[in-house]
Amino acid sequence: MLELRNVALKFKDGQDLIKPFSVAMKPGEVVTLMGRSGSGKSSVLSFIGGDLPDAFEASGDISLDGTELSAVLPEHRNIARLFQDDLLFPHMTVGENLLFAVHGSSRAERLDMMRTALQRAELGGFENRGPHTLSGGQRSRVALMRALLAKPKAILLDEPFNKLDSELRQQIRDYTFAHIAARNIPALLVTHDRSDAPKGGRIFSINANGEVTHV
Amino acid sequence: MVRAALALPLLAVFVVPLLLSVALVLPDTFNAQGMNDVWQHPQFAGAFRLTLLTGLASTTLALFSSLLIVARSSRSLSSRAGGFLAVPHLAFAIGLAFLIMPAGILARIIAQFAGWSAPPAWITTQDPYGLALTVALVLKETPFLVWALASVLNRDDLRQAFAGQRAVAASLGHSRRSVFLQVILPQLLPRVIWPLVAVLAYGMTVIDMALVIGPTQPPTLAQLIWVDINNADPEVNARGAAGVVLLSGVILLVVATVAALLRCASTAISGFWSKGPHQSRLRLTSLRHLPQRGRRREAPDEVSSLWNAFRIIYVLVIATLILQSVSGLWVFPNLLAEHFTLSAWKRLLTDASPVFTSLALAILTATTSLAASVLWLESVPQSKDKGLLWLSAFALCLPALVIGLGQYRLFLALAISGTATAMFFAHILPVAAYVFIMLQGPYRGFDDRFRSAASGLRASRAHFLRQVKWPMLKAALFSAFAVGFAVSMAQFVPAQLAAAGRFSTLPMEAVTLTSGGNRALTAAYGFALMALPLIVFLVAVRMGRSRWRTV
Amino acid sequence: MLNRRHLLATAFAATALPRLAFAAAWSAIEAEAKGQSVYFNAWAGSDTINAYIAWAGDEVKKRYGVTVEHVKITDTAEVVKRVRDEVAAGKADGSVDLVWINGENFRIMKTEKLLFGPWSEAQPNYALVDVEGKATTKQDFSETVDGLESPWGMAQLTFFADGAKVPNPPRSMKALLEFAKANPGRVTYPAPPDFYGTTFLKQAIYEHSADRRFMSKPDDGSSGLLAEDTFTNFLDELHRHCWREGKQFPKSQADVTQMVADGELLVGITFNPNEPANLVAAGRLPATTVAWQHEQGTIGNTHFVAIPANAKAKAGAQVFANFLLSAEAQAKKNDIKIWGDPTVLAVQKLNDAEKAAFAAASAPGGVTLPGPTLLEPHASWVPALEKLWLERYGKG
Fold this sequence. Notes:
- The structure holds three protein chains of three kinds.
- Chain A has five helices and ten strands.
- By secondary structure, chain A is of the alpha/beta class.
- In chain B, 74% of the residues lie in helices and 0% in strands.
């Protein structure tokens, strides 16, 4: 369970961006946070991830499965993130990108996990290809697989379907939600497009005054 | 606190010595007699005009030719330009002069047909308007600007954005040229202001090239000052010191004006084109946010014919240097020397210790500067870069004499003149300035979301730096190292002052030996000065190359 | 009570003591010099000179245990400034032990008390110097030497050309003008304040002023008149027939030499009468090269070595300077194949074997038409003359 309690954001100069709000995401649930560009919705994700830019100040508590996160380093929070861009590391092969997320285990096991993930993404045999040789949809799938291979306890989605054209968008969206459901981890999706939200999921919206309300 | 401490190395090797050095030179400014003497110098007005003319003309022309070249294609240029950059200014001027001067190779070739027995009365070098000097500067600085421009165009994040914008604009019926002018150029110019400033400042302070190919009656301001500074009479020195301060002031003023104009210009260009009567109206702001339509193949790698012309000239200049280095007496109008000799090369190789001193200093200072810059960029918020960038640009704009003189006084006061420590500090100052300027853009331009993505994959900061960030920035890191190396290898004035005769470096040896006018020796040393940075550049390009050849 | 013997002994001691003390003092210097490193700051633009210095350094290392480090410099003025700055900063163990110097640089160091000494006349080999025949060994550009520098070599303004192209060398400024008229664009000289250019200007004034003797005294303000006279009567016209019509000038003597070698210019200029021969030997000028001095004489001077006041190895520097004055070192330096720098010694005072070492066969490029030596004008004329020249010709 990912819980935000009285989370608020303001600019360093004191100007309010988002007024205090609270929300708890249950395992397998995808909660959507909607807002215009510049509303601070992505900064909420940065705050949860632990790397809020210097220009902002945040208050409030975040806990994941009961653990308070404020003192935890970003890399120890176990929260994966997906962005508008796939952010595959361009200097690594598809396989190396995936291996980057696999921790522990022996090399053989790690390779095995990577290949399984590739199979799952219907990209078997793409292991040694450069990310630049993949299509947009393929890259999105690799990015999702990479995020999930790190065995995150929650996932943050920062408009990850924004750059895909409409047909592909639907497909990747369903694919992503299905995998999140299968992992049974909480997810927070920020978007400006209501149609990105999963059907029946809870939707919150940031209004012009920075108030977050349940829609 | 720990993070703030990581900024210290750069402050210690660059900022503090720079500020102290400048502070120690400042009293010269208040020498009223010296200032008065500068104005009274019979050649001052002419020299001043000439400096402004050659500096501004060469920078403008170099900018235009470099834009013409990158507009065509920029993909492989950032690596190709490296070789050109490694050619030292002095060596280039010597080679070029021997190509075009009245007794030069061109004249000799024509003489074969025209039947000349003595060199023609050409004014191809030392022309009163400094045209030859301007041409030499344009030829030498264009590759540097091409490299700077191509580095911006080839930056991973920008290249993708530009490619998308090109594709969109092309789909709206715009020609390649119009896309470049309307879309790319306005975004490009603000990003190359620092390299342009360096070119301008260099053009206005250059001494060695001007001595070889520039006019003497009157000479450029820098040459005029150089003569005064080298005089033993304290009064003449004071005039020279006042001249240095004056020249620095003029340069800072010109640079500030040009930088401001460029900023305005890039806005004006986009404004002009987007409102142009016959153009379909492109709104750049909206264009920037247009989605990227997949990944289109870029146009085949066409290399601009202007670029090819540059290549030919450089090859000719280098070939001339090599030919000169083995030529004995070479009477006009013969196409080859009467006899060939390896004596210049023997001389170079009999005492190789200056080569090793230079090499050690270059590796040490480039590595230290790179490490210190990276530590700064990793630990200090970006908002603080501006001050350091200004300081770096300031250091590059100041004539080497100012910093040299200040450092020298500093070293004397600290009683470290003539020590290895002094040599290290004398070399690292410009190296650190260049490395920081080169690195800051790409490093700060790095997409921080990669860090967030990596944290989400449970990668520690160190793991992320080693596995993701530095490998992704390796081209920029290696280039910065190569530039730092080349800058260190070319360091002369401050090094000479700091060495107090206890150390000799390759450029010091070259300058003293060539003051005797032995052309073969000059050419051999010029070639040696070029060879080491060239090798480092080629290695840096190879190491910095993306593993995907198509990228 | 003083007895006669005692008196005699005292008298003997009184006369002999200076000599003995002299010898003892020199031995003490040699003893002190052993193991010292002498940083010899000397212009290094010539490979032959550098090789000679390296040889001399090796010899004093072998003979006296003194290590000589040749600090290669482009301009002696940088050394003057360094010493001045070090002294001002209170640096007692200075970086310069010995410097190759003369003229303006010497005058400045002497005036500013930056020199150690007097010492040069106490060197054992100083006795061999031709102080009568070569007045410039005691008067450096009209500044008395006063034992503050040790003479090293002789120089005299000398012209050279390819004899195949210039069969009848112009042996006066007037003749040079006629030559320039006949060969437009093929004559020039380095622009003042280059040392050679300034000397050319002084030589021109000498040949056009009714009485040049008063130039040995400090400039009393008549430099303007003298220069004006020479400009209107001679240089204005010469420049019309010069390279680039006298609107541009080469920046250095080395450039002029190179342009002569290329064939762009016909007449070169030098201060070492043997330099053309040396360049012929080095294959940089054609074997048909000839060198000459003006019939009525050309300006000549002596170059010296001096020890800065804050030198660290003063004893070592003196031992090295003394070796440079030895008949052996001077003869080798005199050799055109080695360097070709004329000696400061009175060769007639030497023994036969030593004399023989100086007897050199004439070499191609040597001075075939010598002229007498004229003394340099007082150094105070130089800044005024340079300024006047620049005002008239330096603006393009």
